[in-house]
Amino acid sequence: MNTRSARLLPLFSGLLLFLQSFIVVSGGAVRLTGSGLGCPSWPECTPGSYIPIANQSEGVFHSSIEFGNRLLTFVLLFAAIATLVAVFGANRKDLRILAFGQILGILGQGVLGGITVLTKLNPITVASHFLLSMVLIAGALSLFTRAHAPVRKIRPATFIIDALSKLHLSLTALALVLGTLVTGSGPHAGDWQAARFPIRIQDAVYAHGGAVALLMALSIFYFLRKDIETLTKRWLGIFLLLAIAQGGIGFIQYIQGVPVLLVATHLLGACLVWIAAWRTWLTVRTTVKE
Fold first, then answer.
1. Residues of 24-61 as b/e, b for ≥16 C-beta within 10 angstroms?
2. Is the pTM of this model over 0.90?
């Protein structure tokens, strides 16, 4: 085992987790500034050029925003490759699938991003883009968490805690999915010509809000149980605080007519809530030294 790689692995995996989250926020900035078609072609930015050009009809501002988000994908890919190299150097066979999965997922995001552009920001592809990022954030968090520990095995949880943990994670994922319906039916499409889901935003908000209410009720019940471990309770407490803040932001942005700054904050909050939910689940999948 290369001791230098072992030392660098937590650093690279932490950077990977940060970038996987940051690119969600930067992608939101693309949409919220109306720059989703700032580069109307793919993989080129505009026909005949891979970079923005001064006289393209979309304007330099919008094309630069979209192009910058594309460049961030390469930074993310380099971080994933560096993490994979560190995994091999540290001889962490248990992390190889997670590390390879990050690279494959990032490449998949590139293709999905191209499809999103070529379909003129179809809300289904936009939602898929976001949800794939949630999968990659979960994978990066698992990698980062396990990078700090030696090779381990699963310690089984009790049946009830295991079931509550899975239900908690599933409801969080459902809330995220329904949140994309709100986004896909709302006013911030990324471009004026982009299609919207054929549902009223009010109906999407009610469905999303209902899932969040169920999630909060389950989270409180879960948190109050006396048979959960200290680390699980700690992360569940963090989840509850983030979820309450996220719910408050969501309510305010709705009654205020979804202003851009609050939408961006809500998008960041979604990443943090998902990270807390996944980390809570990981504590139930607690591992011990072999």
1. bebbbbbbbbbbbbbbbbeeebbeeeeebeeebebeee
2. yes
